[in-house]
């Protein structure tokens, strides 16, 4: 929609020219550093946003004398959609369990050569041999997050509300004290999972009656919620606009850190509801279309090293399935039960399984109905 | 404006083809072809993992359907739910268009009647927001409308004087409307300006000489002449608002879902391409009929204006 008329302002054109020059020179400087790309020794990683520590990247590039080229996605569906649309050439992807399940059943993944992965012994057996990939034929655990409750500690304590149960986001008797200060995830599966868990069902329950019960629970609680939010709750919790949010453990870690760094008078706490919650285990897998399986195995083994794996946890507060990493993780994170659940809590966590196409269509309609009500 | 082509020389026909051909090709490639693909998609079964189920049965097929079906259409028409969401989206688009028009008209008039040397600068200022990323501008509105913002404090202080309980601006249909208007305002200003700029000032002088007051001069001269600009501006606002999903997602509350959000979700979260295609086709049909109506109105108005 730019008007196609001559610009009467030499000053503006000059500014644009300057901006261009700055951009160009920055581009050149970057190219000089990355000689590895020119030599073709590149590992293409398709990863979540902010899901590897910069120092880890540097060390790996030094170690392999190669370049780690990253593309990012912000949810599994986006990643699957891009792959389905024909994105190829990635050597490594880090999907969550259910998305990995899809990739395995599609035959899109390459079996692992475990002789190249001696560090696999570092992984806690509780995170191996999942229903998605029995025997870890295709995948190596990378990190995990829990879906839980984050809250403004001072406010919630002041109002005398419980933080160890999903009731706080579903029961009007609690919600009326925090009306308009609550957000829940804008995700059909995650929110239904929370409601199903609260009702005592499995997160993977696809029974129509149970879904109806869960939808009723959500519709009853909805007027008290400010919004469905997938990312903005991090900032809103940290500045004090929100008092309670349903979200991911690493996001809550971020919110708590932001609140602390900006010197807020409150702290952000987070805890796993006693009814149980969703555990999302992200694993490294090798797509068939990757060109550098050898290098990709090297990267996997490198990331299975405790020190490298710990750097991610120290950066973003992700859960870590690597037992060797625990010694390198900062104690305030390692002691946080919302990040490293005890065995009892762990037994109540469930991973989401993929729904079949009819269930997906049915859930989508239910979700539209919930939103329109 | 398709005039009769009878009696056209061969050269003129070739010239017409050369001028009209490229845009026609563009429409074929970027509108007709995608629409056809969408129509084909809408009659398929969704694949088990997303994408589409095959048309013919593969040898190793154990689960799922294949072939052609009108299932997605049946699903669409089986529930009044989807009609509701269309209605809601059209209301939102109409409100946005109306507010944009009311806000853009005086601005466009001001620019068109300013001295020539300022006009380009003012037009540049109108389009300047496009220089920064759309999402960043929407996120900025989150801060402006947030409960701790100066605006919220001010509004609630004023409301407090009248004894009205504090209100929240963010995460509401109001916030969505603000975002929509903000994003689409330039699309209304520009066509209005290009139209108003062409008006002959002597018409207004003549009207004044004949005794018309300021309001009559506007309502009986400027407004009828500007109707084509009004219609093209309205189309440029109305249609994109219908497809918008980012604004309600970021600024909206728990009930602010529009047709754009639903379509986006069919291709990402739900991975139901056929149903997403059905929704898109319905939207395209609705938009086309509205655009058709607008063109008809615009022609009608032009004829009225010039008589």
From TrEMBL, chain A:
Originating organism: Nitrosospira briensis
Molecular functions (GO terms): polyamine binding
Entry keywords, A to Z: Periplasm, Signal, Transport
Protein's UniProt keywords contain Transmembrane: no
Main location: periplasm
CC terms in the record's Gene Ontology section: periplasmic space
Any one of the GO BP annotations: polyamine transport
UniProt superkingdom: Bacteria
Compartments it resides in: Periplasm
PROSITE patterns in the record: PROKAR_LIPOPROTEIN
InterPro entries the record matches: SBP, Sperm_putr-bd
Pfam families reported for this sequence: SBP_bac_8
Protein name from the UniProt record: Putrescine-binding periplasmic protein
CDD domains linked to this entry: PBP2_PotD_PotF_like
Annotated function: Required for the activity of the bacterial periplasmic transport system of putrescine.
Family under the similarity heading: Belongs to the bacterial solute-binding protein PotD/PotF family.
From TrEMBL, chain B:
Cellular component, GO annotation: plasma membrane
Keywords of the record: Cell membrane, Membrane, Transmembrane, Transmembrane helix, Transport
Membrane-spanning residues: 21-43, 85-108, 120-142, 154-183, 225-247, 275-297
Keyword Cell membrane: yes
Pfam families: BPD_transp_1 (PF00528)
Domain of life (superkingdom): Bacteria
Residue ranges annotated for the ABC transmembrane type-1 domain, each copy included: 86-294
PROSITE patterns membership: ABC_TM1 (PS50928)
Membrane topology label: Multi-pass membrane protein
Gene Ontology BP terms: transmembrane transport
Main location: membrane
Compartment(s) of residence: Cell membrane
Gene3D superfamilies in UniProt: MetI-like (1.10.3720.10)
PANTHER family cross-referenced by the UniProt entry: INNER MEMBRANE ABC TRANSPORTER PERMEASE PROTEIN YDCU-RELATED, INNER MEMBRANE ABC TRANSPORTER PERMEASE PROTEIN YDCU-RELATED-RELATED
Family membership: Belongs to the binding-protein-dependent transport system permease family. CysTW subfamily.
Protein name: Spermidine/putrescine transport system permease protein
Biological source species: Nitrosospira briensis
